[in-house]
Specification:
Elements lengths: L1 H15 L2 H66 L2 H8 L5 H17 L3 E8 L4 E5 L4 H17 L5 E8 L6 E12 L8 E9 L1 H9 L8 E6 L5 E3 L13 H4 L6 E8 L2 E9 L5 E8 H4 L1 H47 L14 H60 L3 H18 L5
Antiparallel strand pairs: 1-2, 1-5, 3-4, 4-5, 6-7, 6-10, 8-9, 9-10
Amino acid sequence: MNDIFHWFAKPYSAVKRSLYRKMLLAFLSILLVTVTLLGVNYYVQTSEMIKDQAVLSMERLSEQSESTLSSYMRNMKNFSWNYFGDPNFQQFVKKMGSDPAAFSYYLSKFAQFRNDNPMVDFILACQLNGNQLMVGGEMQEAVLHSEMIRLQKLAVENDGKGQWIPTVTDARRTGETAYTLVYVQALKEVKVDSRPVIGVFMLRLSDNYIREWLNGILPADQGKFRLAQLSDGRVIVASDRESVGKAILSERDMNRLKDVSGYFMTRENGARQLVVYRKLADVDWVLIGKVPVRAMLAEVDQVANQTILIAGVGLLISMMLASLLSSRIVVPLKRLRVGMKAIETGNYGISIPVQTDDEIGYMTAGFNKMAHEMNRMIVQVYESELVKKDAVIKALQSQINPHFLYNTLGTIEGIALEYGDDRIGYISRSLAKMFRYNISEGSF
């Protein structure tokens, strides 16, 4: 604790003893507070603006993506309905295998549609437990058999009403699991009153095409879109296969998917995420996009880093200017300090050069005037003391000399009286009286 106190006390003491350091610290504090407040205000305002723009952009992107996928699905559905109402096609399915020309004709038609629509994986028309016509599809028949039975059963149960059904199929060649949608519709013979089901028509969305399409919605470093099961949140189709089958959102976040579309903020692995979603029509699927907030603010962070760099350079330049300006103030003050110490030691003849016309220059000129006046007064007092001392000496001398004169006059008077000359004695006494009168400053 004492070490910490001394660690802070040393710089504090150094600043406390120096006006120059105090001014530098004041300049630095003002600049830091100003730059920090401006930087924080810029970052906060810009971040909020970028977030709002990102939300709008992601919502618009999810809407466009859902619209594109729905357009693909409508196109496939319309294709199925065209053949559902075609009597010739109904007869072809009913007698499939007996007319090679019709088989070749519809085979080319299906192949043409698949080539024009790369999102279609395969097209299948089949009899119930009978012959089939299939175009495309990398899945082997043996692997598809169990799934085909399930799809045919669902189609028959719907009695001619088409529907999109999620399907999971393992590819024998690649060993990968494909999650996608299949549009199934029972084919009915409409010429008879009973309208029996004679077969099933299927179109399967290509999971490879959907993955590539999902991968192209957003750059990889900005976020990802995935198709998930609305009921449990499991990922059905994604550009990254490792996320398939896993929950894309927590249970709490899944409960927030109430509207047809929307967005919300969540936290995943300690990082904030923007989640946008849009439900698909006619199927229990939802298109979910997740974008890290940090990725949205990457541009703002870059600008913030540049601002910090510019602020640092600005602070350095400002400190150099502040040091120069401070020296213009502190150096004259230091000279005044030297002059005051000189006066303390008795050097009253010191004179400090006046280099500025400001307050410091005024103080320096005043100091010089004061020192000069003090020096003059000291000389004057010294000279007065000398004159006074000289006067005292002279006064003492004037007091001592008459005594010798009186003694001399008294001696003359004594000798004159000894020799009987009264006149000389009289003159000596009269002269002595006159001198005493003059010394006693008497007057007539």
